[in-house]
Each structure stands twice: as C-alpha cells, then as structure tokens.
Automatic annotation (TrEMBL):
It comes from the Bacteria. The active site is at D11, H47, S179. It comes from Pseudomonas monteilii. GO terms for molecular function: serine-type endopeptidase activity. Belongs to the peptidase S8 family. Gene3D superfamilies: Peptidase S8/S53 domain. One of its GO terms (biological process) is proteolysis. This is Peptidase S8 and S53 subtilisin kexin sedolisin.
Length: 225
C-alpha cells in the first residue's frame, strides 16, 4: 500500500545519502532568463535535507520525489517552483510539500497550483506565524502550515488563523521553524494517506483538526505561564 503514496518535495535538494532512497529527482534553474532542468545537485543550503528528514520521520515508508529549485542561496523564482510542481504532478505525486514562501503572487505559480489541485494533488505550503501573505500558501485550496513550539514529535495544532491552518513540530528549527513544521505535518498527512487511502483535501483537513493536540494560536506575552 505504501507504494500508492508519492510525496513530492520542492526545496534545495538533499544529501547524497538521502538521494539514494528517492524515487526520482530533478533540478530546475534559470540561466540567462531561461528555465533549465536537469540532474539534481547535492544540497548546498542544507534546508532541503532537513525538510526531507523531518518529513520522512513522520511519514515512515513512502516514496519521495525531490524537485530542486534552490542552489547556493535561499532564493528562487515562481517559474522554477511552477515547473517543479508540474513535473511532480506528471510524476504521480499524491502530496507536495513546499517549505517555501514567495512574497509576490505570480500567475504562473497560481496556475500551476490550480492544475495540481485539479489533478487531486494535495499541496502543503509553509506560512510564517507573522507577517504578510506568502505564496503558494495563500492560494485557495493549499493547506497552510507553520511551526508550533508547543508541539512534540507526532503532535500538531489547529490554528485556524489568517496566517496558517495548522502548526507542526519544529524541533531545534530556529529560523526554519515554519519550514520544518510544514514538513513534519506533510509527513503525517502522507502517513494518513498511506494507511487510509482515498481521503480528499477536506477529509484530511477535518482529520487534522479533529486530532490536533492544541486548538488556537499559541498565546505569548506577560500572562503566558
């Protein structure tokens, strides 16, 4: 049954050791303003490696596809992310984790997300706990995930805020808290789909809400005990 679930990750790649266990991988980059694609390179940022480890820890045995859109710097383009997403959809991804957020709404990314959702792919994207909207998390139909320091491994919170739907375990996430929380929850969703196939986005959303360890955002301030 595990082979029925294919998880796509759009990030900075992964370590050579992690790459050995992947179902597939592809790199997407811009060269002279043109989109290129080819063989994935080793992760230079370490971000994708951490995201993959977090996701696999929660997911257990599922097939993973990695699309690399970051290289030596934590910056990418909507065109790269859109191309990566469409490749994952064509490769049969059941769920795609996007532990990234672009500040600008771009039609090419919006369209790619719409096509993925129409194909029945679940999209999980990170959103910061505070600040303005980011994309693709702010697109309709995307499950918005962030980090929540209250959560232990295997736990998550139902936030239901303007920023995010759910928060996940971050560990020693530091500045990558939203990214790792997103990855952990994507992994938990992948495990759910492996064990109980056929759930759609709304059913997944309802299951996460019903089984959340915390309800509402974390309260911080003088009165926080």
């Amino acid at each position: 049954m595990g082979t029925d679930v294919r998880v796509g990750i759009i990030d900075s790649g992964c370590s050579p050791a992690q790459a050995n266990g992947l179902l597939g991988a592809r790199r997407f980059w811009l060269e002279d303003g043109q989109l290129r694609e080819g063989e994935m390179l080793p992760d230079q940022l370490g971000h994708g490696s951490a995201v993959l480890a977090s996701l696999q820890h929660e997911a257990g045995p599922v097939s993973v596809l990695v699309a690399q859109v970051f290289s030596a710097q934590a910056s990418t383009s909507a065109l790269q992310v859109a191309a990566a997403l469409l490749w994952l959809v064509e490769s049969g991804a059941t769920l795609v984790n996007l532990s990234l957020g672009l500040q600008q709404d771009r039609p090419v990314l919006h369209q790619a997300c719409a096509e993925a959702l129409a194909a029945g792919v679940l999209l999980c994207a990170s959103s910061p706990a505070q600040g303005g909207p980011v994309y693709p998390a702010s697109y309709p139909g995307v499950i918005r995930l962030t980090g929540d320091a209250r959560c232990a491994p295997g736990q998550w919170s139902w936030l239901g805020t303007r920023q995010a739907d759910f928060g996940g375990y971050v560990g020693a996430g530091g500045r990558a808290g939203a990214s790792l929380g997103c990855a952990a929850l994507s992994g938990r969703i992948a495990a759910l789909l492996r064990d109980e196939p056929g759930r759609d986005r709304q059913q997944v959303h309802d299951w996460l809400r019903d089984h959340a360890a915390f309800i509402g955002p974390e309260r911080r301030g003088p009165s926080h005990g």
